[in-house]
Design goal:
432 residues, alpha/beta, eleven-stranded mixed sheet, 11 strands, 15% strand, binds zinc ion
């Protein structure tokens, strides 16, 4: 969504000021259907809005409206394209936001517990993905703005969350704009050269006395690593036999750089820009691994098999119907030779109709057989989507109950092992 608050906070990334007294640099002004930088005259547009694309912006009564503000610099587009394409492939089901469940719920609960949102605060999520954490917390802040380099925003977020496409290395916001900032699953993707600019930018847009929550991970192994390794071994056993499918999970993790290798690396990186770690919670994924790598995968397998069985039954039925059409066709042909002498024009027409129908039926079966090769991955996506939908609509009561139970199980990791040092961590940063 584009609202007045967002227009007030947003700045041209090329011109935005560094010091709190440089508020006016790069301020955006509405001109026609675009925004124009008051300093360098660069033009920025609204994307992803529905049916309102060409409405003039200078009429303030037309705000808020759906969509996001594209504040990327034209020169950056080329570098980003490859990244965007990869993101698209990985996030095929980003379009809708479901309820917070499993790992997302663990993250969301800790976000609330550690960052303590307040109704009078303005917050920013850096690397917001489809905008789900912004969406789940939209009523806990006065405003929560989402920024991501890839504009894969969910419909719900486009409608209700102020969203910006922009670069984390130069945040397109005025200095000292936000009371709270959070960033979940982003830091581990940044190369070593991107770490300091990232923290400097967070520091620049944070108000005095503000807080930052980071969820990321280092390369450290905790004391519980052997248990987690064992779970992975079990999962690999099933995956090698084609029962569990980890393609999606592997893709997700393929671009983890983890330039901060240890917790000390993190401490010194935030120290370099004047921050200290105020609170920390570690996430030892013992129950998480059990749920994500074994229980959920086994559940997916069962659902997949059930649907496959249903599909093959349907196909058998269709084939049978095709047979009966062919046999009727055959008998019609026999009848025709007898009726031909009587000038059986009606019969002949009937035959052509039957023949056409049989050909169409055969074509349909052939096409479906062809599709079945691609079916496996399409099927998985379809299952995930329909589950997500039915959970969002609260239609699927029993599935939801199971997932809630599994979520509770995952939360035990935080309750039991939250103080045991390991790779994944939540930290709250404040100025020294
Ligand atoms: Zn500018």
């Amino acid at each position: 969504m584009i609202n007045e608050r967002l227009v007030e906070l947003a700045r041209c990334p090329r011109c935005v000021g560094d010091r709190p007294d440089e508020q006016e640099r790069g301020r955006l002004k509405a001109e026609g259907t675009d925004f124009v930088c008051g300093t360098c005259r660069a033009v920025y547009g609204i994307q992803g809005g529905k049916s309102e694309a060409n409405l003039p912006l200078d009429d303030i009564s037309l705000l808020p409206r759906s969509g996001y503000l594209d504040l990327t610099l034209p020169t950056e587009l080329e570098q980003q394209t490859k990244y965007l394409e990869e993101e698209f492939e990985q996030e095929l089901d980003y379009e809708h936001i479901s309820l917070p469940l499993l790992g997302a719920k663990v993250r969301n609960d800790l976000l609330r517990k550690l960052l303590r949102p307040a109704r009078n605060e303005i917050a920013l999520e850096v690397g917001c993905g489809n905008g789900k954490f912004c969406y789940w917390n939209r009523q806990r802040f006065d405003t929560v703005v989402g920024l991501d380099a890839a504009p894969l925003f969910a419909e719900e977020a486009l409608a209700e969350i102020p969203l910006v496409q922009g670069d984390v290395r130069r945040l397109p916001f005025a200095p000292a704009s936000f009371d709270k900032i959070f960033s979940i699953d982003l830091l581990e993707h940044l190369p070593a050269s991107g770490i300091e600019p990232f923290f400097r930018e967070l520091s620049r847009v944070l108000k005095p006395g503000g807080r930052i929550l980071i969820y990321s991970n280092t390369r450290e192994m905790g004391k519980l690593a052997p248990i987690i390794q064992f779970e992975k071994k079990v999962a690999r056993f099933f995956s090698e036999r084609g029962l569990f499918d980890f393609k999606r999970d592997d893709l997700r993790k393929s671009d983890h750089i983890k330039a901060l290798r240890t917790f000390e690396d993190l401490e010194s990186a935030v120290g370099n820009v004047g921050f200290v770690i105020e609170r920390k919670v570690f996430w030892n994924g013992v129950f998480q691994g059990l749920v994500d790598n074994i229980i959920i995968k086994a559940g997916e397998y069962v659902v997949r098999q059930g649907i496959r069985l249903q599909l093959s039954r349907q196909e058998a039925k269709r084939k049978q119907e095709g047979e009966s059409v062919r046999s009727r066709l055959a008998s019609a042909t026999t009848g025709l030779t007898n009726d031909w002498a009587d000038g059986g024009g009606h019969q002949r027409m009937q035959m052509e109709i039957e023949e056409n129908r049989a050909i169409k039926q055969a074509e349909k079966v052939a096409m479906e057989a062809e599709q079945s090769a691609e079916e496996s991955s399409a099927l998985d996506l379809a299952i995930r989507r329909s589950l997500k939908r039915s959970i969002a609509d609260r239609r699927s009561g029993s599935v939801l109950r199971v997932l809630r139970f599994l979520t509770l199980l995952q939360q035990l990791d935080i309750i039991f092992f939250g103080k045991m040092r390991t790779g994944p961590y939540f930290v709250v940063l404040k100025r020294r």
